[in-house]
Amino acid sequence: MIVYDKRMLDNQILVDEAHALCKGSFISKEQKKFIKKELPLFRSQDNILVRIGFFILGAMLYSSICGAISIFGIGGENAYFQICFYIFAAVGFAGSEILAKQNFHNHGLDDAFILGAILNVGLAIGITTEADNPAIIAFFITVTSIFMFIRYLHLLSMLVFCVAFTKFLFYLMFEFGDIGKAILPFTAMIFAGILYFVTKKTINNLSESYYYNGLLLANSFCLVLFYLSCNYLVVRELSAELLGTEVKPGTDIPFAFFFYAFTFIVPAVYLVQALRAKDRIMLWISFLAIGFSIYTIRYYYSVLPIEVALTLGGLVLFTIAYFSIIKLKEKESGLTFKPDRINHSDTILNAEALVVASTFGMKPEAKPQDSPMEFGGGGFSGGGSSESF
Fold it and tell me: Per the record, which residues fall in region Disordered (predicted)?
């Protein structure tokens, strides 16, 4: 299903691991350059600004192709308008396939055609259905984006898939009227929890690492969705928007105590689990969730002036950080304050392959000239320990 040559994908993994090992001072820059030079690689861009520039160029190329096609079909007027976005989507699929065959991967040009194909599929379905059922549009975008990720290993397509799949679920719940809208937070929470464990299990059982980054992105998205699904501020504001619920003074939304508890317990659970599992991404999500929980309470209940609250919060964070550093700075293993030499925990797994690859170009050492002085046997100056000494 993957369009790319798996040998080149393996080469890209090796080069990424070489970069991490070089950053950790395990190999030299010369070895890293040699590995990158010897292995055939994709046409890709690591510089995000350059990649954005190529994306803009690709979008212009995509638009010019679609514009040239429209010149021939504009005479059809309404009939052409009904099918033009299907044609544009086909252009996006064809362009993605051609660029992939030419080894463009995470380059910018391929991003434009892949995302353009997904966008045009959504527009085409929207025009065909006259946008009467947004769930159908979300469904087709979901299917298209997961196909693009599976075939082209495109991370942004996985993000589009997560968002579109979530919207598809929400639109389905809207079909049940007020009941569906009322139980939407619990539905989203259950959905995020199930998808989190499914992606986690898939990552643990992954035999090939090509899909690892995409699955990790989906797994992290589930953590964010799980927290936001029952956050008090989100639930209260969505209740007012979807159900027209008005919270009068002295009253609160239904199950308010559950949402209050959820808002503060889940970030704490994230934090504890991140420290236990040494999960860097979950740790950052827990910090963001704690900050948003504090903002949630201050949005409705302002106990202290903002400047006093920020000052006290800064003092508390400084105290926690200071004593944490004091406690952890001497630890050599586990949770420690010492800087990581390698950011990725699985980088060493491919170190052996890198060592082998880096030695392919080394010339064998010249054999030293045999010394005229023979040792052993006691034949010269007592240099041995035999009976002839």
Answer: 365-389
Answer for the pair 363, 370: CB distance below 8 angstroms, yes or no: no
Residue appearing with tokens 């880096």: 358
What values do phi and psi take at 43, rounded to 5?
A: -85, 100
Residue 321 falls within a domain, yes or no?
A: yes
Separate counts of helices (H) and strands (E) for the chain: 15, 0
Q: Show the domain range for 330.
A: 308-337
Start-to-end CA span in the chain (Å): 76
Contacts with 249 (C-beta within 8 Å, 6 or more apart), sequence order: none
80 in any annotated domain: no
Q: How many CB atoms lie within 10 A of CB 51?
A: 17
Domain count, the chain: 1
Distance CA 314, CA 332 (A): 29
pLDDT in tens, 161-199: 999 999 999 999 888 888 888 889 999 999 999 999 999
- 86 near 122, Cβ under 8 Å? no
Residues 229-272 pLDDT 10s: 999 899 888 888 887 777 777 777 888 889 889 999 999 999 88
- Please compute Rg for the chain using Cα positions: 30
Tell me the three state secondary structure of residue 364: coil
267 assigned to some structural domain: no
Residue 283 has a CB neighbour count (10 Å cut-off) of: 16
DSSP letter assigned to residue 16: H
Cα–Cα distance, 53 to 378 (Å, whole number): 77
